[in-house]
Amino acid sequence: MEQKKPYQEKGTSKRKPIFLISATIIAFLIVITSIVIYRAFYSTNFPDGENVVVTVPKGASFSRIADLLHENNVVESRFKFFIAGRILGWEENIQSGMFEIPPGKTNYELLKDLRYGRLRKVFDITIFEGFDTRRIANVLQYRMGLDSTKVVELANDSTFAAEFGMQHGSLKGYLLPDRYRFFGDYTERDVLSKIVNEFWNFYNDSLQRRTEELGLTIHDVIIMASIVEGETSIDDEKPIVAGLYYNRIRRRIPLQADATVQYALVDEAPRRLLYNDYRVQSPYNTYLYRGLPPGPINNPGRNAILASLYPAEHSYLYMVTDGTGGHIFSETYNQHLRAVRQFRQFRAEQERLRLLEEEQFQRSTGSSGE
Questions:
Q1: What torsion, rounded to 10 degrees, do the Cα atoms 201, 226, 266, 259 define?
Q2: For the chain, which terminus, N or C, has the lower number of CB atoms within 10 Å?
Q3: Do 187 and 160 touch, CB atoms closer than 8 A?
Q4: Calpha distance 313→310 (Å, rounded)
Q5: CB 96 within 8 Å of CB 56
Q6: Alpha-helical runs (H) found in the chain
Q7: Residues 75/106, Cβ–Cβ less than 8 Å
Q8: Distances in Å between the alpha carbon of 99 and those of 6, 48, 65, 121, 123?
């Protein structure tokens, strides 16, 4: 009589195909998942085209960042980019800013660049010594696209200025000339804050103690430095010029600084001053009013500030340009008059040579045309 196989063997034979089918499905899913993950990380996005500028707002969610990149044709698949970011766990590590992204980036490359700020658009801006606020604002508008009107308004906002310890109603004089690096997402407020903070980094405790030793306020020093900056661009002359003006203040002699008169001619481009200009009614006209003017006339650089804190010791009271960019300094008025005559002779000779050169050029042009 035929014997029946044990029940256990029957169950095993039935489960074996099911196990094989399940293992095959799992293996298939693993392969498909691996392919999806690989493509999510390493598929090239838009290999052709130009760089795309995308601004990631501060505090933007990772989902919003994925939307921005997809909307701006940086990533072809929002889903793949989002998955790659979630797998890496970098959702909270994306930097804000303006990014200039070249074509052909993989999602993994993009995520690294966004995490470490490698593609953040930066602007290297140089603010030169003696620039006034409006000129700085124009540079920021031209180079970074900021609103120049807003920059000026913010710099003259007394509430904003007070945030940095300025009690004189504006940031004028405290926008320290230097070479700055700004990121593309910087606002007008961000830029001004960085510049003023750089001023305070420079004007450290040591310089503040020196200010107290001179019996001055920081504002006094900045006003003097702005005049020195306006009068000479030669660094070696700046301590001499500062010492000259301190000598005049001690003797209660008006500073008679041409740079302050130029500043008093509101909205006029710098030009050669005329006799009537020296009579303009303004508290900044140091030909009419003794002592320092009420505020800085520009934003002085480090050398002018240091010169105003550590002026040269001498007896000079007068100076006049020597016609070559420098100045002739005098202790007495008679010496000054001689220096003025010397300058006028120099200028007359320069004019004579200019006219002679122009005449020779015209003759040469005429003869070659015959």
A1: -160
A2: N
A3: no
A4: 9
A5: yes
A6: 7-42, 62-71, 78-88, 107-116, 133-144, 148-155, 158-162, 188-202, 205-213, 218-231, 238-250, 258-264, 302-309, 333-368
A7: no
A8: 71, 18, 12, 5, 12
Query: How many C-beta atoms lie closer than 10 Å to residue 294's C-beta?
Result: 12
Q: Roughly what angle, to the nearest 10 degrees, separates helices 238-250 and 218-231?
A: 120
Q: How far is CA 31 from the centre of its chain?
A: 52
Structure tokens at 299: 């934003």
The model scores a pTM over 0.90: no
Helix H or strand E segment including 52: strand 52-56
With contact defined as beta carbons under 8 Å apart, do 295 and 168 qualify? yes
- What gap in Å lies between CA 54 and CA 121, rounded to an integer? 10
Cβ proximity of 231 and 308 under 8 Å: no
| Torsion sign, CA atoms 222, 133, 153, 279 | positive
> Which of 119, 114, 47, 116 minimizes the C-alpha distance to 81?
114
Helix, strand, or coil (residue 324): coil
- What tens-digit pLDDT sequence spans the chain (370 residues)? 555 555 555 555 556 677 666 666 666 566 666 666 756 676 777 777 788 888 888 888 988 998 998 898 888 888 888 888 888 888 888 888 888 888 888 888 888 888 888 888 889 999 999 999 999 999 999 999 899 999 999 999 999 999 999 889 999 999 999 999 998 888 999 999 999 999 999 999 999 999 999 999 999 999 999 999 999 999 999 999 999 999 999 999 999 999 999 999 986 677 788 888 899 999 999 999 999 999 999 999 999 999 999 999 999 999 998 888 899 999 999 999 999 888 888 777 777 777 878 777 777 776 444 4
